[in-house]
Predict the structure.
Amino acid sequence: MSTPTNSTKELYEQFVIPTYGRFDLRFARGQGTEVWDEEGKRYLDFGAGIAVTSIGHCHPRVVAAMQKQIATLVHTSNLYYTRPQGELAARLVRLVGHPGKVFFCNSGAEANEALFKLARKFGNESVPPAPKHTVGEMVSAAPSRHTILTMLGSFHGRTLAGIAATGQEKVKKGFEPMVEGFAHVPFNDGPALLAAVQEPGVAAVLIEPVQGESGVNPADAKFLTLARELCDRHGLLLMFDEVQCGLGRTGEWCGWRAIAPEVMPDAISWAKGIAGGFPLGAIWVSDRAVRLKDGATAKLCDLLGPGSHGTTFGGTPLVCAGANEVLAVIEDEGMLANARSLGPHAKAAIEGIGSPLIKEVRGVGLMIGFELVADFEKRVSVPAGRAPSLFMVDQLHAAGLLTIPAGTHAIRWLPPLNVTRAEIDEAAGILRGVFDQW
Ligand SMILES: Cc1ncc(COP(=O)(O)O)c(C=O)c1O
């Protein structure tokens, strides 16, 4: 077939299923924090592909590592061992700093799916800590548990279980009935969590330590600490969805450590920035002991045994070589420290604009969101039917800055972890210019 002559947009309109309301931008190449569209216009990329290109576009070390690997071995399936996957698992366990094991998949939704299956296996096969289940045959009669508590406002992916887990009605509409076994708790509401964990059948609690899709809403340290205590008291798994906030975004390898460093979850999901732009998801699971109904004791990280879970592509030598290099670059180039020092600078730069149209600026490290005032549409003429967040992002596009909308009123800055002070100042200047026109 010859190369089509239609424009890129026409190709999408004719051949791509319209699940996305796309912005009218067509990108051709990127380098570092910059991208260029098909007409050659330059943009500063403060969206990073929704927190994915974590060390910028086309970092030379990652390009070299992946070029070498693509010419050596791309894929073998998980029927066999390959060195890059083993090395990446070891690296991730080291970064968590607690003994455990890793499973590889291809996306955030899949990583969470693995957490859901882990929680079900744990709930079905383990013995809850109630005193009546401590002896003899009572142990095998212990009730199965399968409910996973998640937070209102959370986002956990677009699979059927992912939308059931997600604490936002809009993702569920039209896809009923929901996969059962999920219940939602108001975020950062200790008394509500205390009540929910006491319901029969609860097996696990899943928390996004910094909610991303709902507009950068961090968990309270007290709430994360309480969640750990309650999970210990009731024999539940505490699982963190670090798909967006993990692996450096908050200035820490483990995103929650920027909020509550002493809390240790039982399992973590990752994706997005893990391989700097290549599709890879993963979960880490603690090696903590679990008492099983058959009387045996197992390690939590061995519960998903042979035949219980899998995926053809997860953890190919190619993607793992890339992820190993991305994480090595973050370490070697001190990007966690960069996120810790420039995150507050970026937040202050947005606050410094001092616009009465900005209600609040929130952020942890380089995960930053600002929210427009509720009556933004009344103060600025927004085209009918366009959400203020999308309208704002449109204006920033025209001025050469890529940002990510969240809900109807929030806009996220998720620049690469090696963004420079000068780039942040340039982005703040563009933002100021857009607000100044009003
Ligand atoms: C916290 C969180 N979990 C899960 C997902 C789903 O990841 P993916 O789109 O890779 O399936 C996302 C995506 O935005 C996310 O932000």
Notes: The chain has two domains: 8-55+335-436, 67-332. Residues 27 and 37 are 4 Å apart (CA to CA).
